Amino acid sequence: VTRSAPAGCFVVLEGPEGAGKSTLAAALAARLRAAGSEPVLVREPGGTAVGERVREAFLGGDHPLSAETELLLVTAARSDLVRAVIAPALAAGRLVLADRYELSTEAYQGAGRGLPLETVHRVNALATGGLRPHLTLVLDVPPELGARRQIESGKRRDRLDSESAEFHRRVAAHYLAARGDGVRHLDGTLPAAEVEAAAWEAIRGVAGKLSGHAAVT
Ligand SMILES: Nc1ncnc2c1ncn2[C@@H]1O[C@H](COP(=O)(O)OP(=O)(O)O)[C@@H](O)[C@H]1O
Ligand SMILES: [Mg+2]
Questions:
Q1: What is the DSSP string of 128-178?
Q2: Atom of ligand 1 nearest to the CA of 152
Q3: How far is Cα 217 from Cα 160, in angstroms, rounded to an integer?
Q4: Spatial separation of the C-alpha atoms in residues 118 and 106, rounded to whole Å
Q5: At a CB cut-off of 8 Å and minimum separation 6, what does 131 contact?
Q6: Of all protein residues, whose CA lies closest to atom 24 belonging to ligand 1?
Q7: Which of 53, 69, 82, 137 counts the most CB atoms within 10 A of its CB?
Q8: How much is the pTM?
């Protein structure tokens, strides 16, 4: 794993439950394909055989997991995903679209569960080998709206969905405050088509500066 992606373009979608990440990922993938660029789509935790087993353990567990166990589970899955899928895809010049990455771990295990952010950063760095996204799109929605969308869509509630409203407020607040290299906030309360248009502009802006992504520009 190299520190910066040499060839491809690495785009991450972030935000609380029900923010619209999966919806946006599907829409962007369709747009990319129409533009002649086949994206590599991944979701966390998961995206590899090992990662999907971690996902099951993480979301479906039948006893409470400590914050530390959660941190190590999600980052173990990320470590496998980076090395087996993301880094090779970037090296091959592909556009990688990831549903969650490091910022999720800060928001959930850091702000949500209360682990020191310093610890989260160090374990994240180990898991990713320092591989950072070119662009992180954060979908901002009030946690109540995300929760309502999930209920309306009939999504099966997992271990995290069942957490307290206070937990979800801390997660959402961390997302809202997120700043940094390549971090862009989008208003996730807008209609899906408008969120998609704004995301597409942001991706074009970033991919246009990288070589080999003419299809997106
Ligand atoms: N911009 C939007 N406006 C209204 N509803 C949306 C929007 N984006 C997604 N949804 C709906 O909200 C629900 C949750 O969206 P989803 O993409 O699964 O969120 P996430 O993956 O972030 O948890 C789905 O039923 C989806 O159709
Ligand atoms: Mg989703």
A1: HTT---SEEEEEE--HHHHHHHHHHTTPPP-TTTTS-HHHHHHHHHHHHH-
A2: 25
A3: 38
A4: 9
A5: 1, 2, 3, 5, 10, 82, 86, 87, 90
A6: 153
A7: 137
A8: 0.94
